[in-house]
Amino acid sequence: MGHDHNHHHSHSAADAEIRAKALEALLVEKGLITTDVIDEVVRKYEEDIGPMNGARVVVRAWTEPSYKKWLLDDGTAAAADMGYTGKEGAKIVVLENKPDVHNVVVCTLCSCYPWPLLGLPPNWYKSYAYRSRVVREPRKVLSEFGLELDENVEVRVWDSNSEIRYLVLPEQPDGTEGLSAAELTELVTRDSMIGVARL
Amino acid sequence: MNSIHDMGGMHGFGEIPYEENEPVFHAAWEGRVYAMAMYTPVGVPGGFRYMIEKMAPAAYLDASYYEKWMHARTQGMLEQGAFTQKELDEKIEFFKNNPEVMPPVATDSNRVEKALKAMYKQQPADPAQPDPPQFKVGDAIRAKNMHPVGHTRLPRYCRGKRGVITHYYEYWWVDDTPPAGEEHAIEPLYRIKFEGKELWGDEAEPNQVLYIDMFESYLDRIA
Question: Looking at the predicted structure, is the pLDDT value of residue A196 above 70?
C-alpha cells in the first residue's frame, strides 16, 4: 500500500497549529471551554476509548455463546453491558464474518465509525482512496491490505451513512480455543473489526 | 449536495495510505481541535457536516481531516457570534508572531466531570411516530434520483438504483438539511441491499453486495 502524502503533510499544517492555538485562546478567554476539558478529552481518546474495547467485546462473543447471540441481536445493549456507550454509539450493529461471508465497513461521505468500540478512525479509513474505492472494488482494496478472498466468499460492503454504527465480528482463529481472554484480546486487531483483515 | 465529499465509486485517488502503529492524533493540535469541536457548547448553523461539505472542492481535498473540522467549527462559532472575525484574525496574527506563547490556561473540574459524562452518555433512541412505516422487509425499492443542494445522506452512486429492504431500524431524525424554517423530519430508516452489478454494471467484482441505510423519503417503491 502507498504512504500517505495528502493528509498530514499538507502545506498548511504549520498554519493549522497556529489557528488551533488562536481558537483555543479565544474559547478559553471567553469561558466557552477550559484547558483541562481539552486535556482530558484528548487523554481519553488516546488511552481509554480505542480498539481494545471492541476487542474485549469480540473475545467475549467468542467465549460466551449467549453473549454472542445478544451482541448480534442488540449490539448497542451488549456493548453497553461492557461499559461501551456514548458519542457515535447511538445504535451499534455487529456484523458476523463467516467462512463464506466477509463484511467490510466504510463511510463514503465522511468518517462514521463506532467510537465507543474502536475510538477515532485511522487516517486510511478517512482517506479519499478508501472512501472512493471500497464500495466499487472491495476485493481489490482488500487484496492491497493483504486479504485475498475466494470468489465463493460474498463480500458485503457497509456504507455507514445514517446514525447506525457497524462493527465486524471476526472469526476466531483456529487453534486458539485454549487461550485466556487476555491472550485472545491481543489477537483482535482494529483492522479485523473494520473488515479489512481476517485473523 | 453534489460535491467532492460524495466520493463513493470515484476513480483517481490511488492506493490506500496505510500507516503502521498510527497514533490517534498526529500532532497535538489535532487532539485539541477534536476536543474543542466536540465540547464547546456552540452549534454549527446548518450542521457540522454540511459546513464541511460547503468547502470549495479544491480546498476540501487539500485540507487534512482535522483542518476540515477546525474550519467548520470556527465558521459555526463566527456565525453564532461566539467571537468576531477581527478577534480571530488578531489572535492568529499574535500566535504567528509569538510561536513560543501557549494559549491561556483555565481549569474547572466540574466541567471535566460534565464532559466525561457526555462522552459516555447512552444516546437516546429517537422518538417513535404515529404514522406506520410505508415499506417492509423484502420490499423492492429504487433509491430516488434526487439532487438536493443541502446536506443529504443519499450518495450519488446509489441514486436511481434498485435494491431490497433487508431490515427496519424504526424512526430516526433525518440528517438532510430541512426546508427553510422547518425542523428535521423523523422518518423510518431501512437497511437496503444493492447487488454489485446494479451499482457498477459489468465492472462489478464477483459476489459483491452493498448495504446502506436509507430514510423513507429516499425510497420509491418498485411495483
Answer: yes
Q: Is A31 on the interface with B (CB under 8 A)?
A: yes
User: Nearest C-alpha of chain A: how many angstroms from B101?
Assistant: 9
What is the structure's pLDDT at B18? 96
- Is A127 an active-site residue? no
What are the CA-CA distances from residue B137 to residues A67, B128, B165, B185, B193 (Å)? Answer: 26, 18, 5, 22, 11
Cβ distance of A18 and B175 shorter than 8 Å: no
> Residue B165 pLDDT > 50, yes or no?
yes
Q: How far apart are CA B139 and CA A182, in angstroms?
A: 44
Q: At what angle do helices B65-80 and B28-39 cross, to 10 degrees?
A: 40
Give the mean pLDDT of B49-63: 97
Report the alpha-carbon distance of residue A53 to residue A185 in Å, rounded: 9
Level-2 CATH architecture, domain A51-194 = Alpha-Beta Complex (3.90)
Per CB-CB distance under 8 Å, the chain A contacts of B210 are 135, 156-159
What are the sequence ranges of the domains in chain A? Answer: 13-45, 51-194
Residue A47 has pLDDT above 80, yes or no: yes
Would you call A22 and B106 a contact, using CB atoms and an 8 Å cutoff?
no
Judge whether residue A1 has pLDDT over 80: no
Residues of A in contact with B35 (CB under 8 A): 33, 37-38, 41-42
Closest by alpha carbon to B30, among A121, A157, A57, A96? A121
What does the alpha-carbon distance between residue B123 and residue B119 come to, in Å, rounded to a whole number?
A: 10
A99 contacts chain B (CB < 8 A): no
In this structure, which amino acid lies at residue A32? Answer: L
pLDDT of res. B130: 86
What is d(CA A158, CA A169) in angstroms, rounded to the nearest whole number?
Answer: 14
First to last CA, chain B: 29
Which H or E element spans position A106? strand A101-106
CB atoms under 10 Å from CB of B114, counted, come to: 13
Where does chain B show beta strands of DSSP type E? 140-143, 162-173, 186-195, 208-215, 219-221
pLDDT of residue B123: 83
- Structural contact between residues A102 and A154, judged by C-beta atoms closer than 8 angstroms: yes
Per the structure block, which three cell numbers stand in for B84? 468576531
Question: What amino acid is encoded at B106 in this protein?
Answer: A
> Which domains, and CATH codes, for chain B?
28-120 (1.10.472), 140-221 (2.30.30.50)
